[in-house]
Amino acid sequence: MHAPKCAGLALSHWLTEHYGFSDYAKPDEICPEGGVIERHRYTLPDDCRGYEIITCVREPFERWESFYLYYCLQLGVNETFDAFTRTRLDWLPLQSEYTRSAAYVLRVDQLDREVLQLPFVGHPVPEIPRLNVSRNAAEYERVKQQIEWTAELRALVSQRFDSDFWI
Fold first, then answer.
1. Range name among 3-12, 17-26, 91-100, 115-124 with the lowest pLDDT average
2. 41 strand-pairing partners
């Protein structure tokens, strides 16, 4: 299950390339159940029931920054970090939506080690690609430098993603 801004694309490409995994659906299409794209769905499709779920989680403040950078650099949003945070917190789902049914929860900041939890992965661990599309954008450093965390913004993000700090 691919929680947004948690290395889901990198992990799925890696699992496909090195362990023969495949996508269970067309990852960029809208789910039949509603407004989320297929690769960000919370539950498995009926024909995948019984599969073990692997998901990744990320430190919530880093994840929120990544979400902001993605919207600015890839989707053309032109807002301050403050305005974006105050108006769009509900655009990013809780990671707990993805971990609730997961057999394996891997931490992004230690992904190279965390994948050793998976029973089919052993040493040496094949390199996991970093597919950060925002970091490769020409404007990345300029937009990144505009991120200013105030105590109030930290409190808003902490409140919204409270359950994600305990995963």
1. 17-26
2. none
Residue 64 CB burial class (10 angstroms; 0-12, 13-18, ≥19): buried
Instruction: Find the radius of gyration of the CA atoms of the chain.
Output: 16
Token pair belonging to 143: 């937009």
Instruction: Name the residue with tokens 């794209």.
Output: 37
Rounded Cα distance between 144 and 141, Å, is 5
Which backbone phi and psi does 37 adopt, to 5 degrees? -70, 155
Q: Which of 50, 51, 31, 49 is nearest to 41 (CA)?
A: 31
The runs of H, that is alpha helices, within 29-104 are 60-75, 81-88, 96-99
Mean pLDDT of 144-156: 96
How far apart are the C-alpha atoms of 77 and 67, rounded to whole Å?
11
What the block records as the tokens of 132 is: 């950060």
Report helix, strand or coil for 126.
Answer: coil
Gap between the Cα atoms of 82 and 72, Å rounded: 13
